[in-house]
Amino acid sequence: MTETTALLPDDRRAKRNVAVLVLAQAILGAQMPMIFVVGGLAGKQLASNVCWATLPISLIIFGSMTTAPWLSPLMQSRGRRFGFYIGALAGAFGAAVAAYGLYASSFPILLIGSYFTGIYMSAQGFYRFAATDTASDSYKPKAISYVMAGGLLSAILGPQLNKIVEGSFVVPFLGTYLVIIMLNLVGMFLFTALDLPKGTRREPAPLAATPPRRRRALLSDPNIIVAMIVALVAYSLMNLIMTSTPLAVVGCGYALSSANDIVSAHVLAMFAPSFFTGHLIVRFGVKTIMGVGVAILAAAGAAALLGVNFADADQPSLISFYAALILLGLGWNFGFIGATTLLTESHAPHERGVVQGLNDMVVFGSVTLASLASGGLMNCSGGSPMEGWTAVNLAMAPFIALAGGALIWLALRPRGRDA
Fold first, then answer.
1. 147-164: per-residue pLDDT in tens?
2. Distance between CA 383 and CA 335 in Å, rounded?
């Protein structure tokens, strides 16, 4: 018994880091559902053209896309903690600028604040990778899942905070951004408890003999290609639909509190499966779980379209919104966690700065386009909110085909060619 136990990996350090990152995901991460609920509505309030209503959310995603390529190498050289501090400070600053933009009724200032929020979003995206830095190979999928599960608390905390502060100020949505400032400034102290590698500007001798692959070589690796495709599809579709949901719900005559509750249910569905997604990946294989995720995303679009087709008058039932957004969250969880796991298995430790930064640049670049398209489709593709909601959900089809085709291509490749 003693000899068997000795052979098991010691993941105590990794589990401590996971616990800290779960709390960070819960507390600091609460700002994201808060912003996604009010961002499009605030944009619609200030924008001169309603087609640009979701531009504040697009600027957040754009900020994340442009941050990842420099933040990931910076964390490899200076340590994850340094990068997480940058993210939290940028989140607080961005919320302060956005709050001033609301106070001054300035759409451009709101957009500037949104960009800095994107720097925070990029840093939060690396929580999942940080969870694997000190984990054994067998614990990595579970570590990623547990950290993502921290979003459960953020799913509850964020929208409920929105409900509390939404009527606290004469200026609509101002309270949301003031609360976000506090979340960032308080939550950043969690990172002092992390026990992660401090980073190094020079690679250790054993790694120096095998230099990192160039970007062209990395992008010719089938596993990396498919991991990026499934991640960008899962995240893009999640953002495409969730960005339009508050506009659709309120536009169809329901209260803002209903939009908060639907987004809360969606974010719960995004993170609740994380307690067992890692176990499912170990049991059934990462590619199978990714495929299931893509299928559930397709079901989400079908549920939304059925809600419109069977709607009474110009008002789909709230149940159809709940069904679509819950399925969307489940599909995102399986697709995105699966893609993240496949990516971490497809590169060497000393390649992580390039690979992870490149991955998040590609993913959030596509998400930026999706969020821009979301506002245009929702507000400018028909004469009613129902027509806009239909257009948004029909736009899912080519993304689903892309991810499904990529997974089929990878599955049909001879095993020896993936080495």
1. 888 878 887 888 888 888
2. 34
